[in-house]
Design goal:
Number of helices: 6
Structural class: alpha+beta
Largest sheet: 5 strands, antiparallel
Strand order of the largest sheet: 1-3-2-4-5
Order of helices and strands: HHEEEHEEHEEHH
């Protein structure tokens, strides 16, 4: 028996905060996408897959906050890839002073999540919503790929983001205890890393999907938050 999730919304509330969006110095690696860039990116996706319907694979925040319209969602398995908090960010859910981590897919193993079927009528509208949500910078304009999913024994092609980031400047390979340390502390204008993890694991469990890596990580993050909260309560005044 795994028991209940120990990283609860009440525990996350101790560290969950939104930081005002800051204006970092110009960085060529963080040149923002323009409207024209999004049009080009969506065109690349549409031109690379003529079949209908189009499915989108969600393995992280898309599960609990899709942000686009779909007509069907189903549990699916992606083989050859696994979830990993391997994308380091110093904005959105992190800061330059306390970088955060977000999920991506790394090669090896398998990943169970959900696929979302887009309407056959103007799917490019929903794909543009996805790109505007997932891809803020030009250097990430190609951070998507088609993968083959197993949906109830049927093979289906689906679009996903951030699979195989190795070599990118945002890619890191931290041990799980360091991941927990960072997620328990990092926050940005998009919220905290702890909240991102908690909502992802809670949604997976709600859908009957157990990810042993995320289950262990939520336990470690909960322990980190408990430790920090207890230290703050016992700190001397003045």
């Amino acid at each position: 028996m795994r028991g209940k999730l120990v990283l609860t919304p009440e525990l996350v509330a101790h560290v969950d905060r939104k930081v005002p969006q800051d204006d970092l110095p110009d960085d060529p690696n963080r040149t923002k996408m323009t409207d024209e860039d999004y049009v080009e990116a969506v065109s690349s996706v549409m031109n690379s897959h003529a079949e209908r319907p189009i499915w989108v694979f969600g393995y992280g925040s898309l599960l609990w906050n899709p942000g686009f319209t779909f007509v069907e969602r189903r549990t699916a398995t992606l083989r050859g890839w696994h979830r990993s908090f391997c994308m380091q960010v110093n904005r959105f859910r992190g800061s330059p002073e306390q970088p955060g981590l977000m999920l991506a897919l790394e090669a090896g193993g398998c990943c169970k999540g959900e696929v979302f079927r887009l309407s056959d009528e103007a799917p490019e509208i929903e794909i543009e919503k996805l790109f505007r949500r997932e891809v803020p910078y030009r250097r990430l304009a190609r951070a998507w790929r088609w993968v083959h999913m197993d949906i109830a024994g049927r093979r289906q092609r689906a679009l996903t983001f951030y699979a195989g980031m190795r070599g990118d400047i945002f890619h890191v390979k931290h041990p799980i205890h360091l991941q927990a340390h960072m997620l328990a502390r990092a926050a940005g204008y998009g919220g905290s890393g702890a909240a991102y993890l908690q909502q992802t694991v809670a949604k997976l469990e709600e859908e009957g999907i157990h990810d042993s890596y995320l289950w262990e990580l939520q336990r470690l993050v909960a322990a980190e938050i408990h430790k920090m909260h207890q230290a703050s309560e016992t700190a001397p005044l003045g």
